[in-house]
Every structure is written in structure tokens, then in C-alpha cells.
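Section handout 9: paired folding examples.
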Amino acid sequence: MTSKIAINIPDCHVPWHSKSSWEILMSIGGDLESTYDGGVDEVNIMGDFLDFLWCSLHPRLPEAMSVSHTMKDEIAQGIKKLEEIRRTFPNAVINFIEGNHEFRLMRWLTKKAPELFDVFTLKELLQFDRLNIVHHPFGKNQLVSCLGTNYMLRHQPFNMGKHCAAGSAHAKHISLGFGHTHRHQSYSSKDALGREICCHSMGWLGNEDAPVFSYMDHTNWVQSFQVVTALNKDEWFIDTIRIKDKKAIYNGVVYESDL
């Protein structure tokens, strides 16, 4: 039976990503690409891949004002990471599911310089066409099928509460994977016809010690990402790769980073 495989990458907040988690992600991805028949079929970037700190309309605390990265640095590092993904997965469909942090660019332009809408676009700044990356804009109707299945993806949950996975399942009655919360949650239920609904909050791959996150409580933030294997539209299976203390285990192999 033929199957397909996808890697779902939640919030990295480049250049304030976790270097160790990124190394583990790419090591596992590289092994899947080389050992899986046909390689990895799909890579889904789940939003907030970049932080766009300098486009934020929120007041910046002194800690964030002291960071050394400029907007130009951030974009350059983002492109470098996207190039690495494309090199590692040369034949994969790469979906860039825009998050609210990337949307900071459009919000900033709307408020400060609407005349430049068509000059500074996310698609052009991050060179999506050159890297053959499919852009899915941020918004209320954002939904992307993972591997053509009924497991749908978007950046934000449909319920922002404490129980975001269960809330999203009951709000929209679809199977959904999302980022944004930086937490790991999974919830499943069945409807009256026995159809299973599963919702997953994927965690994140950022660096919680970065000064730009000093205003947030990190207690429940979890380093993790997803590998999805699909047999058909209705049959798909999710592995959540949890990263703890710069280590992860997948397929019985221990992956460890010294970064």
C-alpha cells in the first residue's frame, strides 16, 4: 500500500529560533528524505516562521529594543532557512501557511505606508517563487489540506482558550492541526456516525530565552513538531516529535544536538 509523508513545522520565530531544535528537525527530516520511498512529499510551515519584530505595532520592551538583529538580518536568515528546507526536500510540496507574525508586515504597511502594498510583499521578500513555495495568506478562511487528506492545517486555532484543541474540534467539527499557541495539546472525539475528529496544537521551535519573548509566560510552551503519514483521504497517522533537553527520539533513534 502506497503512503505519503509530511513534516509540519510550527512557530520558529526566526531569527529567535531554537538552534538545537532546528538541528534535530532537519536531521530527522533528512533521514526521512533519504530512507522513505520517494522522499518527503510535503513540508508545511505552520506560520510565525519569522518574527517580524520590527513590524510589530505593539510597544517594545527595553529587552527587545536591545536585540542586534535588524529587519534586514531577519529576512536574510528566514530566506537561508527556507533555502535549507528546499535543499533537504528538493521534490516536496512546501506550503507556507502565513501566521500573525508574518502578517505584521501587512498591518504595518496598512498603518504606516499603504502606498507600498505592492512593493513589500511577503511572497517577494521571502522569494517564494524562486524556492517553489506555495503561499497561503493569513486570515479567517485559512485552511490547507495536509497531503490531500481531511486533516486540515491553519496557523491559529478556532478556539483560543485554555483547551484550544478541544475547543477547536467542537467549534468547527473538523480535524485540524495548528501552531500559534506554542503548546502541545491533542484532542479526539467521534460524531454520531463514528467519524473521528482530531485536533492538535503542535508546539513551537523558538528559543524561549530570547529577549523578545521576555514579556510572556513560557511555562506551558513545548518544543515539538509533527510527522504525518497518509494512506488516503480518511486514513492518516500523526507522530508528534517532542524535543526535550536538546534530544528527541523517532523510529527508535536518539537525535541529539550540541548547539
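Moving on to protein 2 of 2.
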Amino acid sequence: MTSRPGRPRAVKPLRTQRLWHPFADMGRLGSEVVFERGEGAWIYDTTGRRYLDGSAGLWYCNVGHGRAELAEAAAVQMRKLASYQIFDRFANQPALELAERLTELTPTRDAGAVFFTSGGSDAVDTAAKIARRYWSAGGHPERQILVAREGAYHGVNAFGTSLSGIPANASGWGVLVPDTVQVDRHSIDALDELLRLHAGQVAAFIAEPVQGAAGVHPPAPGYWSAVQELCRRHDVLLIVDEVVTGFGRLGEWFGSSRFDIRPDLLVCAKGLSSGYMPIGAVVAGERILDVLWSADAGAFRHGYTYSGHPAACAVALANLDIIEEECLIQRVRALEPVLERELRALGAHPMIDEVRAVGLLAGIELSEQRRALIPDLGERVVTGARERGVLVRNLLGKTLQISPPFVIKEEEIAFIAAVLTAVLDDLAAGDV
């Protein structure tokens, strides 16, 4: 028996990589930077080199790296009760205490209750399901539409991906959740028109107090008061996504407090534990509970294995203690003008179009003209900064994210600005 001639078989590359990185082009990854430890605003790799963490990991390490007291809080709880589910009537003391504390801190319309999740993406999906279930249980199942803003980032689960206002994040998956739409990020008129067009069909409007992943876009004056008026007029639930802005990032416990927002549902994660344990939460106001906790509402058939995880809740409580006892929110207020001053100087650089800053959160938008000439400009700036000992992130290829830990010092903020200036100077001169 003779074998049939055919095309030669392609030889697959030998793969030694075993870790699949999120948001990475694995075909072009190259060498990894392997981190080993952190202290304050600094993080160290396995070669001993240190980097100033200009982005607090993924916006989350509010109290800084290397907090032994948070490790101890986890250890103490794990020695007593490492984990047990809170479905049905079960509970644990850290979850009960943290729920009480969050309802006191969050500016929902009325004191309500907390639904714990494993992180921000889970919390967004939970809030979206709560909103739709609220209307269904209240006799209005036709209210299904969820409205988000262009440029929105609400995590990567099914609801969050469908609500995404960042096309690159939403494309390629097919239709995950129907009846999700986006409106212009700044236009009150566009939101009003959409709510009128779909009168009686909209379940909720979801938005970040300050858009993060889209490039750090603070709201225009009066935006949030107008949004709340529209939601009241059209009887639409308001969901505020505080995953990035919560727990002091904007100089208040929540961005909602800074912009005088009173949401029906507030979503939080990241800074809740400063990233020391995976945890997220949805804080629901009394309007929601009046329907979904009523005697005839039935079970809310939703939850996660690690909802209310005892060790995660214990760490979150200890994290909140640090923020309070070390006056870190007041520290953010004091450092806000420092960060703005140092970064505003970059605004005059020929490689920069705009600098947007609020609290300890900033977006440095790279020149559109220069990006057209250097398509990978964002990555080149990030790489150049890393080689000089500063970690910042590239948002959508056009904006540099600055969101350091709250424990950063003034001279360290100046170091971030100096390094970025040096990198931009080199790029402008064609030396990089």
C-alpha cells in the first residue's frame, strides 16, 4: 500500500510557555517579567530589580504592597475557618461584619444589603441580573434593556462583555447577552433620546463615575445630576460601577460621593481588599430589597462558590481598617494636586495631546498625530518606562494609565513624571 502524496505537514513550534496571560497576544508575548515581592509603592522582580508601581497593579493596590497585617488577617481567619459557603441560611462572622460596614460606607439611595462575589466582573453580572430580576418580580418583565456608555468597561463576564463600550473587548464573541446598548459617553441628550425611544423597556443604566479603561475620562460638570434626573423621570434603575473608583481612589470612599450620586445598585471590588484577596460586592438599596426580599419573591437563584469567603472578607475588613487608621483617603486628597501638577507639565510635550486627572487617577493621552506615525507608540512608552523602573499601563494604545498606591510619596510621583518625560523625549528624538 502506497501513501498518497500530499502537502508537507507543518511543524508546530515547540511551546514551553504554560501560563496563558489575560489580555495578551500569546503568539508575540516574548520574555516574561516575573515579580517576586512588593513593598509600599514598589515591586521587585526575580532578578532583584525594583519598579515603581504607577498603576497599583490593575488599579487595586490602594494600601500598597507588602502589608503584613493583611497576610496576618488571612492567616488568623484561615486557622479558624478557611472557607464555607453562604448559600441558603449559612453565614460567617467576617461576611456579616463586612456587609454591615459596606452598607454604612456606600452612598446607595437607602441603607440596603450586600451581595458578595469573587471580583468585579462577577459583581457586574450580579448587578445586571438583579436589575432584570427586579423588574420581572415586580410585574414588568418587558424591562430588559441595559444601557451603558461608549468607552465603558464593566469586566469580561457575559453581561460585562456585552455592555462593553470598547469595541475590541466586545467583538469576536458573538451575541452573549441581548438587549444591551451603548450611548455617547458625555451626551445627556443621547441618553434622554434612548430612554424615550425605549420607554418602559429599559431596566437600568450602568456607568463608572470616571471612565477608567477607556482612558480616564472624568464627567463634565452637571453630568451626573442630569443622569439621575433622567433615571428618575423614566423610572430606570441606576447602577454605578465603582470597581476602579471605590475605596478612596478619588479622594472619597466612593466616586459616587464625590459626584453626589445615589445609585440603586453599587458595584465594587479591587480596592475592597487592595487586591490581597479576590473579592467583589454589589450593594443594593432598599428599593431593590422591597421587591426581591418580599415574602412572595422566591429564591434569588444566583451566587458563587466563594461569595462571602471568610478569609477574603477578613482581609477586606483589615484593609478598610488600614485606610481609616492611616487616613489614606485624606492622603489621596493631599496628593491629588501633586499628581496633577507633575503630570500637567507633560501636557505641553509634543508627544502628548491631553492629560486628564482626578484624585490619584490620571490618563495621559498620546498625540494622535504621533500615533499615526508610530502605531505601537503606547507600548513603546510603557516598555521604555519599565526599563527605567516605572510601571504604567497602555490603555487602548493611546492613553497611559497612572493610578499609584495611596502610600506613594511626592518624590515618587515626581519620579514617574521624570521617567515618562525622558522616554517621550527619546521617542520624539527618534532614539527609541
